[in-house]
Amino acid sequence: MDSVIHHIKSLRLRDLTLFTVSAILLLDTLAAAAAVGASSIFWWLFLGIIFFIPFGLISAEMGTTYPEQGGIYAWVRDSFGGRWASRATWGYWVNTALWNPAIFILFAAVFSQLFIPDLALKWQIVLGIALSWIAVAINIITLEVGKWIPNIGAILKVVIFIAVIVGGLAYSQDHGMANQITFETLKPNWGEGMQYIPVIIYGMLGFELMCAGSDEIHEPAKNVPKAVLFSGLIIISLYTLGTAAILVAIPAQEINLVEGLMNTLYLFFGGSVWGDAFALCLGVAALFTFFSNGVTWSLGCNRAIAEAANEGEFPAFLGYEHKVLGTPVGAAITMGCVSTCVLVLYGLMAGSSEDLFWSLFSFSAVIALLPYIGMMLAFIKMRVSDGDRPRPFKVAGGMAIAGLCACSCIFVLCLSIVLFIYTPNEGMQWAVFIGAIAVLIIGEIVIRSAETRVVKPINAC
Predict the structure, then answer these.
(1) How far apart are CA 56 and CA 212, in angstroms?
(2) Confidence of residue 192 (pLDDT cuts 50, 70, 90)
(3) Distance of CA 191 to the CA centre of its chain
(4) pLDDT of 452 above 90
(5) Is residue 365 within 8 Å of residue 355, measured between CB atoms?
(6) What is the DSSP pairing of strand 427-428 with strand 422-423?
(7) What is the maximum alpha-carbon separation in the chain?
(8) Are 221 and 67 in contact (CB under 8 A)?
(9) Is there a contact between 460 and 330 (Cβ–Cβ < 8 Å)?
């Protein structure tokens, strides 16, 4: 006989804020954004206004009005039905399964840079596989314990960002600026920089992730909006100032997408025994934050797809939950298997850790952006069809402003998808396009194969 899963109320305001900072504030995309040049500062601020703020407001309204386990899955399901919800959840989950290898190979590359400079790519891949399965184990334990990985990761990210910002200011006083930050250079670059603009958008996603475990949140109506506000202020401030700090030190054309952070830390703080030791400590902290990124997204996405599987929208094994802890055992193990296969396959094709990181990042990012379009459409539909429902938090300004916020987000998301697939001055990125289409087709097959099975919750031992 199946028993009802009772989720433990583990997430308070502090946890939600740190969880969101851990999910959105990405050290791995900071160097990629800085590679745009000084105009990246404009893009952080401009996209913050037309995307980040509206996205945060919409996430707060949806998370407090519809605090259902599963987050995006539940919202799209209630708006457009199970099949569309499953498609959104597939994109949400498989992106993490594809992105985790990118973040873990970044961990391995920085680990090599710090401790074993000649570590071969194949051994970096082995390390990435090991990290994937450690993340699986953390997903299976209760959130009361697992939440400390993103909590500590978020604190360390803030420390590293502050160190980079302070170091950049000090460095510029003694050495001048590697990239001039003036009104002219801040103007957007519509040429070479366009290929990195989607990276900035990707670095703004994740407000909704906390809502995937709504049953595990203390007072969601009160705490979710506060967490969005507090984390949003921290994130946009540190992103903008951190990008400026890297540009102070390193010419934009010389920024390495994988090694850029450590190059900056050694440039700012190295040159003495204590300075090198401090830079090394920050590098070790950065390694933990890379790992915590993967864990944070896994915690949310595995819960979303487990909820969908338990409603019959995905194969039964994805819905296996621990009968005591309520954790997504089946989804976590499956994600570990997918991440392992992706690391091995891409490792055979990539020539360097930077090539591997960028290939995995671009490929997974296209898939990642699609569910958010579904979320915005669900927000509009719920405002129209369920407008009388009490909303503990509501986007101000009536339906006109709410629709404008959602449409602005949809436009930016669509533009980002196009720019990942078609790079100005380089042309069509066929590997990214074909890979994304293949993943969507696989998802359609998986979803349709599950529709014939009997729907009932499934619990693991």
Answers:
(1) 15
(2) low
(3) 26
(4) no
(5) no
(6) antiparallel
(7) 71
(8) yes
(9) yes
Please report where in the chains the tokens 């250079």 appear, as a residue.
185
Rounded (5°) CA angle 196-197-199: 70
Query: Is 108 in a helix, a strand, or coil?
Result: helix
Contact between residue 76 and residue 85 where contact means Cβ atoms under 8 Å apart: yes
Interatomic CA distance for residues 369 and 88, integer angstroms: 10
Decide: helix, strand or coil at residue 8. Answer: coil
Asked if 71 and 347 touch (Cβ cutoff 8 Å), the reply is no
Q: Is-contact 83 311, C-beta < 8 A?
A: no
Contact between 156 and 288 under an 8 Å Cβ cutoff? The reply is yes
CA distance 380 to 402: 8
Work out whether strand 459-460 and strand 321-322 pair parallel, antiparallel, or are unpaired. parallel
CA 375, CA 89: separation in Å to the nearest integer? 10
Contacts of residue 314, Cβ cutoff 8 Å, sequence gap at least 6 = 86, 89, 90, 305, 308, 446, 447, 450
**Residue 88 reports pLDDT greater than 80:** yes
Model pLDDT for residues 353-404, shown as the tens digit of each residue: 555 556 666 777 788 899 999 999 999 999 999 989 999 889 989 999 999 9
The three-class DSSP label of residue 422 is strand
Output the pLDDT for position 405: 96
Alpha helical stretches, state H, 270-328: 273-310
Q: How far apart are CA 260 and CA 102, in angstroms?
A: 16
Q: pLDDT-derived band of residue 181, with 50, 70 and 90 as boundaries?
A: confident
Q: How far is CA 157 from CA 4, 424, 446, in A?
A: 38, 32, 37
User: Cα–Cα–Cα angle for 78, 82, 84, nearest 5°?
Assistant: 95
Q: For the whole prediction, is pTM greater than 0.85? A: no
